[in-house]
Specification:
The complex is a heterodimer. Chain A has helices at 2-17, 22-41, 46-76. By secondary structure, chain A is an all-alpha fold. In chain A, α1 (2-17) runs antiparallel to α3 and α2 (22-41) packs antiparallel against α3 (46-76). The radius of gyration of chain A is 19 Å and the shape is rod-shaped. In chain B, β3 (192-195) and β4 form a beta hairpin. Helices cover 67% and strands 7% of the residues of chain B. Chain B is mainly alpha-helical. In chain B, the strands form 2 sheets. Chain B has a two-stranded antiparallel ribbon with strand order 1-2. In chain B, strands 3-4 form a two-stranded antiparallel sheet. Chain B has 6 helices and 4 strands, in the order ββαααααββα. Chain B is globular, with a radius of gyration of 22 Å. The chains are: A mainly alpha, B mainly alpha. Chains A and B meet through α3 of A and α5 and α6 of B.
């Protein structure tokens, strides 16, 4: 019974952790949108803009990745089961 | 859900050392890179005659230009390492296209790659500022910023390792979840044909390949590029 409660709460926690996916989604959308704007204004700077955008997008993505790692730990390497 | 997110399987044991799939695939990637390098650089000419040499020069020029534009002319010693890192991370991710397990879907691989970067950053800082200047850098701009600087120092390799691992492992988990869901869907609709131990689900054909193009091909290439890019940027930032 205790185990079932812990497992169920861990699954809910994993789902809640992935709400963090909203943030990177919005942020990356802004970054890509602004890059397209600047490329449209100055097409010759496309290489530089794209390269910088990828770095920025990867940076913005890291919060989402952290949330994903937390969800993975809760689902597959649950630390609370051992504490029962 | 068998095998999803449970970490790499143990292939065999030597003297109590568990050799996992990651290690075996890592050696396979190293072997592929070695054979590729030997094959591409055989009898080089001053003026390239074979297509092989043109390809080799293209790859070397790509890495050299990348390092030159991101780190500057005086840090070209890092170009071979960046090239090796790029090739290893790229092939390590793309190896999942042929059904093997990605090397970079194991946190140990990415963490060790990130720790090498961390050592290089520390080396560059000490080389350009001296030991005193390096230690003083933690207290800049004022003394009580010390804990924050320490955290940001540790956060660089941690975030790099988590980023590469999370992207590749996430793609792997999502692809296998979809694969399982498609199998369940086709067995619910009665579209599974079984011949002995060999089963065939209609929906499992083709549909996971579309996702695989994004998660394995695109994500693998971009993340390998990002990882080496962040290495270059962070090491070059240690100079000032």
């Amino acid at each position: 019974m205790e185990k079932a409660i812990v497992l169920g709460c861990s699954a809910i926690g994993a789902g809640l952790a992935m709400i963090a996916g909203i943030g990177p989604g919005i942020g990356e959308g802004y970054a890509v949108g602004k890059t397209i704007e600047s490329i449209a204004r100055q097409p010759e700077a496309q290489g530089d803009c794209t390269r910088t955008m990828f770095i920025g997008v990867a940076m913005a993505e890291s919060t989402g990745i952290y949330a994903f790692v937390v969800a993975l730990i809760l689902l597959f390497a649950n630390p609370f089961i051992g504490k029962l | 859900m068998d095998g999803v997110g449970q970490g790499p399987r143990v292939v065999f044991e030597i003297f109590g050392w568990k050799v996992t799939e990651t290690v075996v695939m890592g050696w396979l990637v190293i072997l592929i890179v070695f054979v590729l390098c030997r094959f591409l650089t055989r009898n080089l000419k001053k003026v390239p005659e074979s297509k092989r040499q043109v390809v080799a020069e293209m790859m070397v020029n790509f890495v050299n230009n990348l390092v030159k534009s991101n780190m500057g002319e005086n840090m070209m010693v890092y170009a071979p390492y960046i090239g090796a890192l790029l090739l290893y991370a790229l092939l390590g991710s793309l190896i999942s296209l042929v059904g093997l397990r990605s090397v970079t879907a194991d946190f140990n691989t990415t963490l060790s790659m990130a720790l090498i970067t961390f050592a290089m950053i520390t080396y560059t800082k000490i080389k350009y500022h001296g030991v005193g200047g390096y230690l003083k850098g933690f207290c800049s701009p004022i003394g009580f910023m010390l804990p924050l600087n320490l955290i940001s120092e540790v956060a660089t390799p941690a975030s790099m390792a988590f980023r590469l691992f999370g992207n590749i492992a996430g793609g792997m988990v999502i692809t296998s979840l979809l694969y399982g869901a498609l199998g369940a869907l086709s067995s619910a609709l009665g579209l599974v044909f079984e011949a002995g131990s060999w089963g065939f689900s209609v929906f499992q054909v083709g549909i996971p390949a579309v996702l695989s193009v994004y998660f394995d091909l695109f994500s693998g290439c971009i993340q390998a590029y990002i990882f080496s890019m962040l290495t270059m940027v962070n090491v070059a930032a240690g100079k000032d």
